[in-house]
Amino acid sequence: MVLGGRLWSLGIGTSMRKLVMTEHDQVYLEALVLVMCARVAVAVCFKRVAPWVLRVRDAGAPVAPPELEAQVQMALDSVGKWMPWENLCLPNAIAGKVILARRGYPATVHLGVGHKESGTMRAHAWLEAGGGVLAGGESMDVVTVIPR
Fold it and tell me: What burial class does residue 141 get, using C-beta atoms within 10 Å of its C-beta: 0-12 exposed, 13-18 middle, 19+ buried?
């Protein structure tokens, strides 16, 4: 306990007590961790997570508050700056779905395919919750939705 007492006397314990995460901070931290986990899941075992990821939310399901949706959208948009790899749409959509599901709000991940100007094929994923697009909305107009 002497060590703990010394830490408190140095003021380190005081700064540790102030280290309280707000809901906003929790969403950002969750987004950072979950995008990394989703990236691994997509690469390693997508067959196992696909049934849950592609589940459509019920029409009568509760809708997330607009403040939470805005926080999730901002977190997913900004988390790509901290990734050591390219920020992809599918891991972002999966991470957003998990963040909302942990709080009891369902969301739907949509998948689509299309062609780039060069003629090569492109795929895209986006997350929809509460009637709005939270992640991946920038390219959803140039792809055709894959029916379920």
Answer: exposed
d(CA 80, CA 75): 9
Report yes or no: 91 and 39 within 8 Å, Cβ to Cβ.
yes
pTM above 0.85, yes or no: no
Query: Percentages helix, strand, coil for the chain, rounded to the nearest 5?
Result: 55, 15, 30
Q: What 3-state DSSP class applies to 108?
A: strand
Q: Are 136 and 126 in contact (CB under 8 A)?
A: yes
The per-residue pLDDT for range 6-28, each reduced to its tens digit, is 444 445 555 555 567 777 778 88
Q: Which tokens hold the place of 134? A: 């939270």
To which H or E segment does residue 122 belong?
A: strand 121-129
Do 53 and 94 contact (CB within 8 A), yes or no? yes
Return the structure tokens found at 88. Answer: 């992809």
Closest CA to 146 of 116, 114, 117: 114
